[in-house]
């Protein structure tokens, strides 16, 4: 971030007289995915005043010299260039073509200038990489597509990456997770500007939920193998693969360091530089996610699940599971089974043979959802009842004391994932 921008406190930064929030500039680049690019064009570029949605003025700007080719070989022609950004009070970068390429310097300069003059800057999906390259995410919370979140955290260590969020609103800089989460953020902007009624009316026209949360879509389930793409070519990839295949065994970070033929300090440094995470945090999260799978797909008791996920005791599992998923293991299982589709007789739960780990179940099931309790029935009631059965149990033991608690993000109750920028733990 430039010295001039850094010298102006965010709270004191005012929108320049020639800029207006309802003027939205969408910055397009060649090679960008067409779906993400179309989201702000649809939300802000169509007159829906007949449905009660206030009108925005859309400026579609080319972020680099034409022609702009998008996915599928389509060629776009933007009616405006970078100079039009000077009139916009909201600037949206819907996506960036490749996280390995640097954005054009002229586009970065235009974004910095817009931010300095009080414009609201929005990055959808990989558009966060453009905002980060411009220095606009330094010291801020942000999110992006879960697959690229570790790379964002590694490349820009001053950015507080939280891949569990569908979007992050940090005032004048906003970012969203991948693909459809861009719709959630755009609806949030409409809600912020014009209220819930306008956002709900727009959601009805788009035929999408007016407000989603990460837990609604089981967002955390997509994060269990979230590692930078370049890890595949690194010697640590073999150690990571071994750890994922032996989560049922009790081993620690020293074991992983020994397998990598490194000292613990060197291993920690290499692992953090590669993934943006401490190896201990990553390992704990993998064990919790393995426990989540077993709770969904087997009849093992919580004690048995703890042993099959490498925890030294059920107490350690309960503590880490609750911190990461917001419920006890028993409550999570009860809620998951309560909301499973019922068709005739209940489907018997899969129970792997004793002594066998079995294959990993396919991904795609969501995490614990927050349902309203009606007359004491439904998943929420099941979760509450299961939680009541866990009352009085300690939340830590000797093993839990050895493993630091996962830090908590700025959003209440949301745990920091292994791909988030490292912070002190314990």
List keywords for this structure.
426 residues, alpha/beta, six-stranded mixed beta sheet, two-stranded antiparallel sheet, disordered N terminus, disordered C terminus
Task: Write up what this structure looks like.
The protein has 426 residues and is α/β, with parallel strands linked by helices. The chain has 16 helices and 10 strands. The protein has helices at 3-7, 34-45, 105-116, 127-133, 149-155, 181-194, 196-206, 236-245, 253-259, 264-275, 279-297, 302-308, 314-325, 329-338, 379-389, 398-402; strands at 20-28, 57-62, 68-69, 75-76, 88-93, 120-123, 141-142, 160-161, 167-169, 173-176. The strands form 3 sheets. Strands 2-1-5-6-10-9 form a 6-stranded mixed sheet, sandwiched between helices. A two-stranded antiparallel ribbon has the order 3-4. A two-stranded parallel ribbon has the order 7-8. α3 (105-116) links the parallel β5 (88-93) and β6 (120-123). The two termini are 32 Å apart. Residues 1-12, 217-225, 342-382 and 390-426 have low confidence and may be disordered.
Largest sheet: 6 strands, mixed
Summed over residues and divided by their number, the pLDDT gives a mean of 76
Strand order of the largest sheet: 2-1-5-6-10-9
Main structural class: alpha/beta
Helix % is 25-40%
Fold topology:
Blueprint: H1 3-7, E1 20-28, H2 34-45, E2 57-62, E3 68-69, E4 75-76, E5 88-93, H3 105-116, E6 120-123, H4 127-133, E7 141-142, H5 149-155, E8 160-161, E9 167-169, E10 173-176, H6 181-194, H7 196-206, H8 236-245, H9 253-259, H10 264-275, H11 279-297, H12 302-308, H13 314-325, H14 329-338, H15 379-389, H16 398-402
Parallel strand pairs: 1-2, 1-5, 5-6, 6-10, 7-8
Antiparallel strand pairs: 3-4, 9-10
Helix pairs in contact: 2-6, 5-10, 6-7, 9-10, 11-13, 11-14, 14-15
């Amino acid at each position: 971030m430039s010295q001039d921008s850094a010298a102006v406190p965010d709270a004191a930064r005012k929108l320049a007289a020639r800029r207006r929030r309802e003027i939205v500039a969408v910055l397009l680049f060649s090679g960008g995915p067409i779906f993400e690019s179309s989201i702000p064009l649809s939300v802000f570029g169509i007159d829906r005043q007949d449905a009660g949605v206030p009108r925005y003025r859309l400026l579609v700007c080319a972020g680099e010299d034409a022609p702009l080719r998008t996915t599928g070989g389509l060629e776009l022609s933007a009616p405006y260039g970078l100079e039009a950004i000077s009139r916009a009070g909201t600037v949206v970068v819907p996506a960036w073509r490749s996280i390995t390429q640097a954005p054009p310097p002229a586009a970065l300069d235009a974004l910095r200038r817009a931010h300095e003059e009080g414009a609201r800057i929005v990055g959808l999906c990989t558009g966060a990489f453009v905002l980060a390259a411009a220095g606009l995410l330094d010291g801020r919370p942000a999110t992006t597509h879960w697959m690229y979140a570790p790379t964002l955290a590694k490349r820009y260590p001053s950015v507080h990456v939280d891949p569990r969020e569908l979007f992050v609103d940090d005032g004048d800089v906003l970012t969203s997770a991948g693909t459809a989460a861009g719709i959630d953020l755009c609806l949030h902007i409409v809600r912020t500007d014009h209220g819930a009624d306008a956002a709900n009316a727009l959601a009805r026209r788009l035929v999408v939920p007016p407000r989603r949360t990460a837990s609604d879509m089981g967002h955390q389930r997509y994060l269990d193998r979230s590692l930078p793409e370049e890890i595949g070519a690194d010697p640590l990839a073999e150690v990571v693969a071994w750890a994922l295949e032996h989560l049922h065994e009790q081993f620690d970070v020293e074991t992983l360091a020994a397998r990598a033929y490194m000292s613990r300090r060197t291993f920690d440094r290499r692992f953090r530089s590669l993934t943006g995470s401490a190896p201990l945090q990553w390992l704990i999260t993998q064990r919790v996610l393995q426990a989540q799978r077993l709770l969904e797909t087997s009849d093992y008791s919580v004690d048995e699940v703890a042993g099959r996920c490498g925890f030294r005791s059920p107490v350690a599992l309960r503590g880490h599971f609750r911190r990461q998923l917001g419920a006890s293991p028993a409550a999570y299982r009860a809620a998951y089974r309560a909301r499973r589709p019922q068709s005739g007789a209940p489907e018997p739960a899969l129970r792997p043979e004793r002594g066998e780990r079995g294959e990993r179940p396919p991904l795609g099931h969501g995490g614990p959802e927050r349902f309203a309790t009606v007359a004491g029935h439904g998943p929420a009631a099941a979760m509450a009842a299961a939680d009541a059965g866990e009352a009085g149990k300690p939340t830590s033991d000797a093993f839990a004391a050895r493993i630091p608690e996962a830090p908590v993000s700025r959003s209440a109750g949301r745990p920091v994932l292994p791909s988030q920028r490292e912070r002190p733990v314990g």
